[in-house]
Amino acid sequence: MSIARLFPRSSFFRFLTGMREVQTRRPVTHTPAPPSIHRTFSTTPASLCSADANQNPDRYFAALTQNKEWAAKTAREEPDLLASLAVGQRPEILWIGCSDSRCPETTILGLKPGDVFVHRNIANILHAADLSSSAVIEYAVRHLRVKHIVLSGHTSCGGVAAALGNKQLGILDPWLVPLRQIREQNLDTLQSLSADEANTLMGELNVREGVKTLKQKSVVLEAIEERGLTIHGVMYEVGSGVLRELDTNDTQEQLKARLVSYKTEA
Ligand SMILES: [Zn+2]
């Protein structure tokens, strides 16, 4: 199978329109494994762990078994896919999203390994000087030359809920400062809404702030100007599995002002 077939150029728009077919993950009842299971796993072959997994519904051991089944099924149904990925990657999309387990980007987009380069953190916050997200963005834009950056928030976000509350959370407190700034700037509106509505609105405002931060990065501005890199702000509706696009487009004047203000050269 050719690389072009594996990574069609218009894939981002195709999976946005196809989101209604995506099913949300069914609720998981987690049963903690007894300590003996873990001790057994560390000293016995994987095949024995799979046997344990069959008798005990621990998600990790079950997932190990499912991985073998998935690898075999993928090799059977798409014999070229994994072999081509072993050679390299050419993702067209950089996804920046929340670490939340309910938002697995490749699954909800209906895509495959190799399709999406990913950075996820708590509440999909972009701090301008954060080394981790900045390195991912730099690599994705400059070296992988992705065509789209998707910044996704989601409904019922725990990080957003934390920033809408006042409980002390240790290291999470400085991390959540950008969300608290949004709260401060929109206090009256947020206080007039129900908890769910406030969570969704703050999630959207956070996406808009993140898009703004993205467009303050020289590497991103350069790619927008020179090769048409596009930035998308979206909200993922956890209860329906549907992505909703936010209008985060700039006017030509706004883009010009950003280029003058933020673009740097070697
Ligand atoms: Zn979240």
UniProtKB/TrEMBL annotation:
- InterPro entries, A to Z: Carbonic_anhydrase, Carbonic_anhydrase_CS, Carbonic_anhydrase_sf
Please give the Gene Ontology molecular function terms for this protein.
carbonate dehydratase activity; zinc ion binding
Top-level taxon in the UniProt lineage:
Eukaryota
SUPFAM superfamilies associated with the record: beta-carbonic anhydrase, cab
What enzyme category does the UniProt record give? lyase
Q: Which PANTHER family match?
A: CARBONIC ANHYDRASE (PTHR11002:SF76)
Q: Which family does it belong to?
A: Belongs to the beta-class carbonic anhydrase family.
Q: What is this protein called?
A: Carbonic anhydrase
> What species does this protein belong to?
Aspergillus ruber (strain CBS 135680)
